[in-house]
Predict the 3D structure of the following.
Amino acid sequence: MSSWARSRLLRGSAVLAGAVLALSACGGNGGSHTSGTATPDGDDISASPTPADAQLPGTVVRIRITDHSVTPDGSEVQATHGKPVSLLIDATTAGELHVHSSPEHHIEYPAGTSVATLTFKNPGVIDVESHALDKLIVQLEVR
Amino acid sequence: MILLHGLGGAQDLPVPAPLAITAGGVALVASFVVLVLAWRRPRYDDRPEAAGRSRARVLGALDSSAARALWRLVGLAFFGYATWALLAGPDNNNNPVLGVFYVLVWVGVVPASLLFGRVARALSPVRTIDLVLGRLVRGHPSRGLLAYPERLGNWPAAIGLFWFVWQELVDPDQVALATIQTWLGVYLVVMLLGTAVFGEVWLERADPFEVYSDLLAKLSVWGRDREGRLLLRSPLANLATVTPRPGLVAVVAVLFGSTAFDSYKDSLRWVRFVDARTTHVTWFNSGALIVFCAVVGVTFTIAAHATATRPGVPRRGLPTAYAHSVVPIIVGYMTAHYLSYFVEQGQQTVIQLSDPMVTGADYLGTAGLTPNLWLSAHPTFLATTKVIAVVIGHVVGIVAAHDRALTLLPPRHRVTGQLAMVAVMVCYTIAGLYLLFGT
């Protein structure tokens, strides 16, 4: 796909209403770490420190990020549209993930463990990348 | 500004394997049917103008100087509006100029030329500026200081097209306004200098957008007779009138190779390879882009050479003589590759165009619209459409090559002389399907 434009034009649901992607906080409560913003179409983008992965909904992807590396580094994960995908993030320092859906979303995560839950409205291939390392983590094949 | 390596937005799901395999099979069978069973005398060559006389009056109105002037004004107004956003708008993702440059102009030229003919020529702001300047300064807008060297052919356009796709697919700063400003600035200067030296013929042969659009327009129903009058004709007959010039093979190789590279560079294999590199990523991507274009150019040239020819038909002219037949294959593959992108990003661009300074304005009344993502929501329909486009492109390409072969090849080698060309086209189509199927 012609690259750049997908990353630019469909970024930010402020310009693209129809909730294509819904990110929801999972577990994090009591004003812990809340990054991201609620957007006009009702998407709530946040990551929260919650290690309780036993109850994580839907497809679970475990991600470990250090200052120099990330695992997995470019694997393919199958998911279903309308069903949640939970990213269980274990990071040495706080940072940001880029979810190349339409529209794009940025997920800020804290140091330590946190969870981001994403639900995609439409099928497609969606890359999840580490911003600081500029590397592909997983490619979600949403059917 | 946050930029990753050009990967962004949801991409289409891979085409399902059974669909891709079926399409490959159909393409293969159709090729041999055309090769063995199709007509034995050229149908499209040697019949430069056969149709459309009765409609000449209506067409004359469409082609009148008033209509031309109207399109020139539309083109100039649109160019001015986009330039305003380019020069004064914010350097971020909401600036519509990115979508105008990479989606509406670059991808939009394909459907626009197929439907309406030589749109770049009609709308081109460079041509308009040249017309005005020519009239004011030179007196003879169409004449330059020197004759355009025949050997140059379409080579400058091939270079321009390569420069565009490099910027779109490889340049890490592809979305920075400064990058687009530089590209357009250099393009304008080179085009205007070229017309000053060689006259209008420079735009016809060297302007990447005009050459691209003119080539695609040959697959439309809008043709021209010897006197340059507009007429309606079958797209296949129209396609046979592509003028074979030096560099035409390079033009089609860049167009096809770059689209294939665009598919390949998003594959997990290539992303993993590039991610494992800490330096020289741009060089690896540039190298790969060149390799993709070169493979197309070289395989096509070899396939065209692999035959006996009629006396008086020089062998080295064969690749250019066949080059028009790759155009349908390119169109089929581009449709497959860019359909959802064009429809969905195109809508987004039209929405953004209402607010060029990103100040919350709504000049065109489109700011409040939301893109319709129906195509993405129906992946089976999308995949089927893509595969059908590839197969149709392949069949039309094979037919065009067959018809040209009948003119070029001695009767004895009518079938064997086409084998290499058919084989290479089948390879292009299978490779395209493989890239759509996912690597």
Observations:
- Chain B has a mean pLDDT of 89.
- Chain B is about 65% helix and 0% strand.
